[in-house]
Amino acid sequence: MESSARLIIAAGEQSPDLYYRTGFLTPDPYIYVEIGDESFMLLSDLERDRARKEGRATHILSTSEWEEQAKKDGKRGTAGIATLFLKSRGVSSITVPYDFPFGLAKILASEGFSVSPAEGAFTPSRALKTRSEADQIRKVQEGVEKALWTVVEVLKKATILDGWIFSEGTRLTSEKVKFLLKQELLAHNLIGQHTIVAGGVQGCDPHNEGSGPLPAHLPIVFDIFPFSEETRYYADMTRTLFKGEVASRHRELYEAVLSAQERAIAKAAPGVDSSLLHQAVEDRFAELGYKTGEVDGRMEGFFHGTGHGVGLEIHEAPRVGKTGVPLLPGHVITVEPGLYYPRLSGGVRIEDMLYITLSGAENLTTFPKDWSSVSIP
Q1: How far is residue 240's CA from residue 320's CA, in Å, rounded to a whole number?
Q2: pTM metric for this prediction
Q3: Domains in the chain and their CATH numbers?
Q4: Three-class SS of residue 22?
Q5: Can you spell out the DSSP letters for 115-127?
């Protein structure tokens, strides 16, 4: 009797869907198959015994028993082994993740399988975090906050000369601060990549990681989003800090972003469409007269989504933007409005993570946002 299967061929370290299902990390690809209520992990002898201790599947098998037959049949690699295994189980149709390798899909199709990408998320349940998962994300966030507190202490001790921040007699640069953050994150077993420390006009490009000396008196955007090397869960936090005397226009910019974020956070609850959080941000900025559009060939104002889901990926479901979905208990989302005006030589973004509960939303972020905490004399 012909049957259908769900198939992943990937490395556990690269596929959140695979890791979510098996809890098993590998640097190299292996085969994972679901057929009905059964699940199968097919690995090399090198990994099989470890998988039996650490992995989750109803059957954990060695690929060696299939390799000889694959060679006899002229088939190669994981695709050849997967072909033999799937045929032995009477499988005719296969559902794969949308990012399944095209070359592997072609080989399977040439063997007579009907191969289709999953409609929507391959693992929708990943978007709904248990209390334990939320606690793991919160633990990562604790490391993020400790790392940023270290930078705050550096800024407190720093001096200002000719509009630049100096620490221990030399200009404090984005690179030095990112190195310090990376060290602090590693102390908590966190891997931080593409951390943003962008001062002044650099902060007007939301994904500019920042470079060079950090300016005094202007906004400095810190966006820190590492993952735990142990659990693989991410956290995500943005704060905008100032060192020195701050112009009124920049303080007003900061307070506008903070008030917009507070409005959006107040709306977060189960059953609320996530787009309403984004609308709350846009409405608040409109009330305060902050316009969005292209000026001199460059976008300014608020021109990105309000947030996104966080979990085994830094950006995952649900989306918090112009189009949204109903928030559900278990969603972990960011709320990160920003305003960016190159003509004002600065941008501001503030980001917290929320865990949607049965009755509302729990803020997983505790790093302060009040003006006295972010403005450092």
Answers
A1: 21
A2: 0.94
A3: 3-122 (3.40.350.10), 128-376 (3.90.230.10)
A4: helix
A5: EEEPSS-S-GGGG
